[in-house]
């Protein structure tokens, strides 16, 4: 039976969780950015997963992004949003094969971490702004998602129930945001808000897999530490 060892490194504004297990032949890296739910930020946070998966500085299109993932032995990138209590969580995760099990895949973890760093800290930007074309297109994608959820009668009824029961609490806010708030979102103010997330959100990093022999602790801690400001909020 495989043993699982847990280790948490607590820093100013972020925690890194290392979970060692031999159950998987892949390494899972997840970064969870958490902030209080507000009506002002929830639609922006719901839109960001769509935008961030459309390109980076060195992989400026979704196609080139996917091609690079294929080159990393079918590594999977996923970005989504959720809520927990009165907090909103933006999750960016990468699942890549463990190089210990693939011949000729030297430095695959390093390449995966480097790619994840680019997705988070070097998205496709035009003069301190996300690409306006991408943002407008993904606003429509999110709008379609919100409209589809309204057509789901069970989901709609559940949302209305929560809104009534929790009308004085942030938990009432819808995780996918609000169609009427999309118009005010621009490529410029969305990027400015994303920079605030990187600076101010509490960050939990999870590393799971057979990681004992990969020196992963230093690699991941250095990745996060080099891109966090000391003013980052503490976890409540």
From TrEMBL:
Gene3D superfamilies of this UniProt entry? Answer: Metalloenzyme, LuxS/M16 peptidase-like
Indicate whether Phosphoprotein appears among the record's keywords: no
MF terms per GO, please? metal ion binding; peptidase activity
Q: Which GO terms describe its biological process?
A: proteolysis
Mind listing the UniProt keywords for this protein, alphabetically?
A: Hydrolase, Protease
Q: Which InterPro entries match?
A: Metalloenz_LuxS/M16
SUPFAM superfamilies of this UniProt entry? Answer: LuxS/MPP-like metallohydrolase (SSF63411)
| Protein's name in the database | Zinc protease
Origin species, per record, is Gracilibacillus boraciitolerans JCM 21714
């Amino acid at each position: 039976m495989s043993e699982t060892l847990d280790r948490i490194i607590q820093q100013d504004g972020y925690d890194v969780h290392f979970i060692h297990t031999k159950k998987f032949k892949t390494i899972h890296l997840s970064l969870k950015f958490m902030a209080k739910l507000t009506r002002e930020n929830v639609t922006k946070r719901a839109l960001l997963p769509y935008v961030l998966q459309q390109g980076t500085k060195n992989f400026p299109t979704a196609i080139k992004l996917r091609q690079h993932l294929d080159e990393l032995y079918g590594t999977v990138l996923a970005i989504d949003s959720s809520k927990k209590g009165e907090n909103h969580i933006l999750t960016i995760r990468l699942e890549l094969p463990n190089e210990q099990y693939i011949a000729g895949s030297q430095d695959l973890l390093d390449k995966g971490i480097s790619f994840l760093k680019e997705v988070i800290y070097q998205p496709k930007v035009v003069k301190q702004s996300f690409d306006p074309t991408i943002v407008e297109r993904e606003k429509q994608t999110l709008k379609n998602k919100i409209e589809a959820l309204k057509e789901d009668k069970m989901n709609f009824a559940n949302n209305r129930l929560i809104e009534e029961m929790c009308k004085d609490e942030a938990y009432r806010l819808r995780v996918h945001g609000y169609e009427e708030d999309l118009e005010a979102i621009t490529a410029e103010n969305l990027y400015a808000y994303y920079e605030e997330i990187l600076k101010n959100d509490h960050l939990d990093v999870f590393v799971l897999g057979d990681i004992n022999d990969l020196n992963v602790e230093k690699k991941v801690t250095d990745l996060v530490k080099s891109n966090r400001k000391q003013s980052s909020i503490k976890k409540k």
